Amino acid sequence: MPQTQEHKINIINDFPPEKYNLLIPVLSFQEINPIYRIITNIVKISSNLDDKEIYEERNAEKNAGSEKMYALTHKALMKLATAANVQIVETTRVQPRACEKCVDIVKATGQAPACGNCSCVANVAYRVTMKFPELSGGWRIVQATREIDFSAMDHLKQGQVLKIKEFAAEHAESKAMNRCIRKGLSIKSSYKIEEFEKPFVVAYPVLDARDADVKKALIAGSLAATNLLYGSGLPLPQHQIQELAPPETESTIQQGQPIDPDYEVEQPDLDQDDQNQADDLQRYFCSQCGAEIAENVAEYSKRQYSAPLCFKCQQTAKKGGGR
Fold first, then answer.
1. Regarding beta strands 139-148 and 263-266, do their DSSP bridges make them parallel or antiparallel, or are they unpaired?
2. Angstrom distance (rounded) from CA 195 to CA 9
């Protein structure tokens, strides 16, 4: 039989907030369906910046005074999402806001805009939808959209702009995912470094296979899914097919409601998380002219001139006493 209701209600007492970062929406449970049991996972986030799981969040430091604050990178957020059984429903590239305004103008006037002269022509936007398991056994749908806005780029060097444009779609998609995960798991935008000494705790329900009826239904559902994918190699009795519930991916998503489907637009700047993701793609560009350069050229230039430069710009820096 499934674990008792009392044990499910008190499981949170094993993780006191002074020792753990709790990513659980409630501290006590009033009622849980007896066919479910609660899975709790403990996730350790490294406080070593070289592990690229946190980065210094300078925007938060402005509000916190002189104390340094740190935020979770895309890598760390995906670790937490996986541990919490978060599922990606859809990632879609959508029209930037400026393009939506132009579409409205075209509908109203019948005249096509001059896209080539628009300062937002390079903008990229992505919408991400995820579903988060609720402790009651249902699902909660969270949606977020992030746009990379290139209409204001005077504060960036040409090489930086070219680098951001190269991976604008990847940045927009990962930023939208980050936003979804933070909202769905109630993750703070920044933490003090000592807070990462406490591991993160996530919890989600699963059907309890120790119950005979639940186990029978799970086996029947698994056979039905296998037959659907690979044919009827594994026969399923007709009476079991009739007893199966509708597919979870259809019924739960239809019941869920998107929460806070906000739209965020950010200026094309590189924070440390963006830099980490760009470094992982193993492409290097001259910080002055934007030309693509080899990794060894970039590393040498950083040692000699404190910036990645192509051979031509290195010569210019050398003549100007740039070393």
1. parallel
2. 26
Structure tokens belonging to residue 207: 């059907």
H helix or E strand, kind and range, residue 91: strand 87-94
Closest C-alpha among 168, 98, 95, 150 to residue 127? 95
Which stretches of 231-294 are DSSP H helices? 238-243, 248-255, 272-280
Look-up: residue for tokens 């029209």?
95
The 3-state DSSP class for residue 132 equals strand
Q: Say how far apart CA 289 and CA 314 lie, in whole Å.
A: 11
Tokens of 297: 């050229």
CA angle 244, 246, 248 (to 5 degrees): 115
Region for 4 from its dihedrals, namely left if φ exceeds 0, alpha if ψ lies in -120 to 50, beta otherwise: beta
The secondary structure of residue 221, as a DSSP letter, is: H
Q: What angle do helix axes 272-280 and 74-83 make, rounded to 10 degrees?
A: 90
108 phi and psi, to 5 degrees?
A: -80, -35
What 222-231 contacts at long range (C-beta under 8 Å, 24+ apart), as own/partner pairs, is: none
Residue 317 backbone dihedrals phi, psi, to 5 degrees? -65, -35
Q: Cα–Cα distance between 221 and 71 in angstroms, integer?
A: 41
Report helix, strand or coil for 17.
coil
pLDDT tens for the chain, 323 residues long, are 444 444 444 556 788 888 999 888 766 555 667 788 888 899 999 999 999 999 998 876 556 567 889 999 999 999 999 999 999 999 999 988 877 777 777 777 877 777 767 777 788 899 999 999 988 788 899 999 998 887 766 667 777 777 777 888 888 999 999 999 999 999 999 999 999 999 999 988 888 777 777 677 767 766 666 666 666 555 555 554 444 444 443 333 334 444 444 555 555 555 666 656 555 555 778 888 888 888 888 888 888 888 888 888 888 888 876 55
Q: Which two tokens stand for residue 45?
A: 């986030």
Q: How far apart are CA 169 and CA 175, in angstroms?
A: 10
The full set of domain ranges for the chain reads: 5-206+256-281, 213-252, 282-323
